[in-house]
Amino acid sequence: MQRQKIEALRIHLVDLPVRAVHSHGSGDVAGIRSVLLEITTDGGLTGWGEASPWPVFTGTAEGNAAALHVHLRPHLLGADPVQVEKHLALAEAVVVGCPEAKAALETALLDVVGQMAGLSIAELAGARHRAAIPMSFSVANPDFDADLDDIARLYEDGVRLFKLKTGFAEHAFDRMRLEKLRDRYGDALSLRIDYNQGLRATDAIRTLRDLEPFGLAFIEQPVKRHERAALAAITRALDTPIMADESVFDAREALAGVEMGLADIFALKIMKSGGIRRALEVAAIARLGGIDVYGGCMFETGVAHAAGAHLMAALPDLHLGCEFYMSTYYAREDLLAEPFPVRGGLVHVPEGPGLGVTVDPERLAKYRTDLLQ
Ligand SMILES: [Mg+2]
Asked: Which domains does the chain have, with CATH numbers?
């Protein structure tokens, strides 16, 4: 393998329009604002990565673009792309936070290294344990009739996992939606709910017990990120598995979560952990603690979805699916040259070396709002 050097980093800020406003316990989303990182080498290779922050959850696009442009670029120009862990450790040393920028950097490096080695990112991460992952769609339109139309269409497409975003309106609205879905589809759907921190800790156990008869696969993040004792109490009190999302970002929080019985499931997201390697560390801690994991994401284009799919492929155990639906079912148009591979309700792990997907330059130009180079 001929060694190469990183020659340039280009940081594209993009704004993608979406099909509908989606509501969550932590606020509304009306577009996908993301950062695309393009790394080129002196050997003529291009690697793509994405930082897709959510300001109420992980951080801002502007902050992550600045982390890449100002603080990380000087350490990467001229460097050997193969030394991925070295670059990540350095990134962690020179910028606190901004895990999305670190995820973007790792994805772009692994895309280059995979192309050099003729291996997919999943294989670079250890193995391609599976070729496809069941996909969950998030039901989050305040107009539930519009969601019912979407669900009918997705059901026809083979989707069976649906996650209702709850806690942004009154409890009766959440209950009504679950009743309608169970009436219409019976047990054909695996239903999950996600409060995005939207419940008051003092009410949470009573409210959630009322929903246990719906046979939910899991209840996600009912209380605030830092209300960890309350989340552990909910986990003890309910039969339905409880998932920590906002409360577990990285390996340190995962370890503390295992020690205190925080939750039954951790949501893995490369944007929380700072990339695939760090998410695998969270997954290893979860596995040792008897905690299940789930493939979460932020509001992303197909580039970050592809990185997430390689992470999901590399996990030894995966039972609850993933939610990489935005580029197919939420964005009006994605940035990938080929559609992100969702078929029959399954996310197919991209094949080919590296990330296995590429960005369409015309679409990138169409949705780009800024370019730092
Ligand atoms: Mg969540």
From this structure: 6-118+361-372 (3.30.390.10), 123-348 (3.20.20.120)
